[in-house]
């Protein structure tokens, strides 16, 4: 098998850039693909060649097997790396590569097919001697068959998509009464994610550890494992924080889990990098759950503690090289943790977020795999993952503290994201203590999601907006355009932050000192104000608020400003409604029009005109960033009009359902 000379990367953004970084030092020419939505993306700019494979916006562009193969042949690529997601676990894509004479950087079509079907994977694992969870998997089972199987297994049970992965199409069912609704929801999400709504059942192990073993195998029947990763910090079965090694795994258990993983590798004649995943219960017993036949999002933490470049080894193995690593040569150095920076708002039930990247500055002291750039845009068409912040320390506590510090120094402004949530996780005493399971986030939600107070940021925004320069070169301060009140009188402001409307008055003493009335209680005093222009639309402000000195970044937006205090990763968006008419709906007033809170696709419309609904009734289900989101009624009402249908593409704030008050 000849060395790979030209590699097409059948993926986008962060993972495409990661593969580029591995391929270029090896002398491999690189080819990027992109949809029109990604034509300015970093992976497109950094590859040797780039080809458009579909219109914008289009998730489907990256799923077009025929187009990917056609582009590879056109570019003269002799190999394709699929990354993760999209076609990375598609047997059909793997077979198409074989048929076209193109080397796939990954396992054989048969190995992918065997592991892609969870029922088949479990059967092979059992035959290979791996411990498995009791369950039921009949591909054509009816709803009544599944309900009967759930009763035999005993609640709680887990519904899992047969063709699934990444937590999609999974639902935990605690009682028989909720089984039917949860089954429907799981099948719908599986259909949207994998175009396959078949499911299987497993006995649910409550609050286990989620442990995965990284493996590498060559075509010469030599394989090794590179230890474990702990992926127990999950929300809706989606990993958020991953680490290596696991605080729950000792050397003896690592050896047993590694041996089990390698049994599956040999049973499937696996080639390349892969991950065998297990659940570890409180008794120290582990159970096989699935195998991911691709590179994992969290591969960087394994690289950090082993010094092994997994992507380069993927490329070398795909070129037919012998895997020279021996099991006894693999040593683990220190501790690594990864936080997934995602475009979602934890304060609003992790609602997906989109918007412009106004400011982006990752911490220089940690590894950050990303494809963000100031001036770019986060669209609703792809996964919410933005970046992976990876740290390495001499020990686990040092790594926890380093991740928290790195997140504090991360600046990302333009939309809500989860950096502060990640920082709270890494600083939490239970997480730092290491004794937790997959229920950690739910068990400590009150602490992790506790609202922040932004009084200082509101005060800075108020002064900035009241005395903002009309352009960045004029003298400071300057009056707000449109006001007729004199500078001697307090400047009236109507601002909106965190869903609250603030009616403020800002007074200046003409000596870099200001009083802000209307925030809370007594006037907030802001002194020693100093503002400097950092770059177009971005300002650095130093000020003392209520006697506390701090530095702030203020970034203009279309509707106001973002204010971020130094070492606080969560910026505050303050909208300026001073010169706008009052909102038609005041706080607490009946919400007649239900609008879409995000961009996304309508997957279910659950109400019809004339129907009476209660507070909390699900009206519409939306799919955004590959996840299902339920839109509910805020109070009891009568459905007057439904403006949408299944399949409609929603824009944020687009009307969906009109409600009327019950007389």
List keywords for this structure.
CPAse_ATP-bd, biotin, 8-stranded antiparallel barrel, 8-stranded antiparallel sheet, ATP-binding, Rossmann fold, ligase, globular, 663 residues, alpha+beta
Describe the main β-sheet briefly: 8 strands, antiparallel
Spatial arrangement of strands, main beta sheet: 14-13-10-11-12-15-22-20
Oligomer: single chain
CATH class descriptor of the largest domain: Alpha Beta
| Amount of helix | 10-25%
Do you know the CATH architecture of the largest domain?
2-Layer Sandwich
What would your notes on this structure say?
This protein has 663 residues and is an alpha+beta fold. It has 5 domains: 6-105, Rossmann fold (3-Layer(aba) Sandwich), CATH 3.40.50; 134-203, Dna Ligase, domain 1 (2-Layer Sandwich), CATH 3.30.1490; 209-448, D-amino Acid Aminotransferase, Chain A, domain 1; 455-576, Glycoprotein, Type 4 Pilin, CATH 3.30.700; 593-660, OB fold (Dihydrolipoamide Acetyltransferase, E2P), CATH 2.40.50. Helix content is 25%, strand content 32%. An 8-stranded antiparallel beta sheet has the order 14-13-10-11-12-15-22-20, sandwiched between helices. Strands 24-25-26-27-28-29-30-31 form an 8-stranded antiparallel barrel. A hairpin with a 6-residue loop joins strand 26 (514-517) and strand 27. Helix 3 runs parallel beside helix 4 and helix 4 (91-100) runs antiparallel to helix 5 (109-116). The protein is globular, with a radius of gyration of 27 Å. The model is unreliable at 470-487 and 581-588 (pLDDT under 50). Residues 122-319 form the ATP-grasp domain. Residues 584-660 form the Lipoyl-binding domain.
